[in-house]
Write a structure and sequence with these properties.
Blueprint lengths: L10 H9 L10 E3 L5 E2 L4 E2 L4 E8 L1 H9 L10 E6 L19 E7 L4 E7 L3 H9 L4 E8 L5 E6 L9
Antiparallel strand pairs: 1-4, 2-3, 4-5, 6-7, 6-8, 8-9
């Protein structure tokens, strides 16, 4: 079975988001006193005392700009936690991040249209395999059920970070 890998927000995009987010707002760094924020830059939870920021991020819009897709009304932006300063990115572990709760695996076509979604509590690799069994699926987004926050993306082309 193919192993599907989570894609963090890429460093050039993070640099842009730290200047102005996808809603045009300046980043406002804070010290995370409690820890536990799901960081999209390094795909881990924040530690107490780290400087982080909550920014508006439009992952489908950015993907569409690279591919020429037109997501139409599916173009959405939402909150994403990132480190306020440059970070080293993800560690090289084999586990998918943020899988300890209910998540939605949302499927998108190469045109940027939603092809469906699925609620997942465990078995994420199986959910990705099922999604990519459909030849129309170009990528999937994993989102938090509670707030709908984007957590990470998995692409058919497997141009993901290496974890081996």
């Amino acid at each position: 079975m193919t192993t599907y890998l989570a894609r963090p927000i890429e460093p050039p995009v993070l640099k842009e988001l730290r200047s102005a987010d996808d809603a045009g707002r300046e980043m406002v760094p804070v010290t995370d006193e409690e820890g536990g924020a799901p960081l999209r830059c390094c795909l881990r939870r924040s530690a107490p005392g780290e400087r982080i920021a909550l920014v508006s991020y439009a992952p489908l819009r950015r993907w569409a700009a690279q591919t020429g897709a037109d997501p139409g009304a599916y173009d959405e932006q939402g909150p994403a936690f990132i480190h306020a300063d440059e970070c080293a990115g993800p560690t090289l572990d084999e586990e998918l991040p943020f899988t300890n709760a209910h998540r939605t695996v949302r499927r998108y076509s190469a045109e940027g249209r939603i092809l469906g979604g699925r609620l997942v509590e465990d078995g994420f690799q199986t959910a990705f395999a099922e999604a990519f069994d459909d030849p129309e699926v170009a990528l999937v987004h994993v989102r938090a059920v509670e707030y709908g926050c984007f957590l990470y993306e998995v692409r058919r082309d497997q141009q993901a970070i290496r974890r081996d």
